[in-house]
Design brief:
The protein is of the alpha/beta class. 48% of the residues lie in helices and 15% in strands.
Length: 234
């Protein structure tokens, strides 16, 4: 499965989606099409960086892979889409286009523009999935994203009901450690034992911090599993 994550807007969490939602579940290489902003590497993922103008190179690499995640930065998306249009039918190399969105009005408007741009270059509506990101569990999503839900009901894209990633402190904690949730899950260290064996406050704090991250990750993973299933089964 090959997935492209993109939005004309920055600050919608594209790289977090690539690093924590998609990569641990798909186990695929991540390509970052970015020249200015941070990408999934800041979340602890090994990425291969390209620029939008290197679309031909990216296209060749994708053709050789069974699975891939392409994280397109807002600084490169216009050139990326322009070149995709020049290479007619190259949009068919992707199985899905994921458009993360947050509740700010500008980002929602840019999300609609992103979907329109994808449709204009021939991406089928059925391949475009909108993912609500960075919201609180008590937010009224139908109210906060009313215009976006209405837009998707026209059939230009799909916004699955459970395709929602909630805000979670684990993302900031992992970023500070250059780890992904996948790395955290694979860590079998007994931090309770580490806490008992700690000989100073620094060691205690380090163990306590990891215990807290693992607890947050359990809640987060349940959310991410549900969002992943909603995206690709809707």
């Amino acid at each position: 499965m090959k997935i492209c994550v993109l939005n004309f807007s920055g600050n919608v969490g594209k790289s977090t989606v690539a690093a924590h939602l998609l990569q641990p579940r798909l186990k695929a290489p991540v390509f970052s099409v970015e020249s200015v902003n941070v990408d999934a590497q800041s979340d602890g993922v090994d990425v291969e960086r390209l620029r939008g103008r290197q679309f031909a190179d990216l296209q060749q690499r994708l053709m050789k892979l069974p699975d891939a995640i392409v994280d397109v930065g807002s600084s490169n998306i216009e050139e990326f889409l322009k070149l995709m249009q020049q290479y007619e039918d190259s949009q068919e190399d992707f199985d899905w286009f994921i458009v993360p969105v947050v509740k700010d009005a500008k980002q929602q408007a840019d999300t609609v523009n992103t979907v329109d741009a994808l449709r204009a270059i021939g991406v089928p509506a059925a391949k475009i999935r909108v993912l609500i990101n960075k919201v609180e569990t008590d937010d009224d999503l139908r109210h906060d994203f009313a215009n976006l839900y209405a837009f998707c009901q026209t059939g230009e894209a799909t916004l699955p009901d459970r395709a929602v990633v909630y805000a979670n402190e684990v993302f900031a904690g992992l970023k500070s450690k250059q780890m992904t949730i996948g790395d955290l899950d694979a860590d079998t260290t007994d931090y309770r034992q580490k806490l008992r064996e700690a000989t100073n406050e620094v060691e205690q704090d380090a163990a306590i911090n990891m215990i807290a991250l693992k607890r947050l990750a359990k809640t987060c993973n349940k959310n991410l599993d549900a969002a992943y299933e909603a995206l690709f089964s809707a």
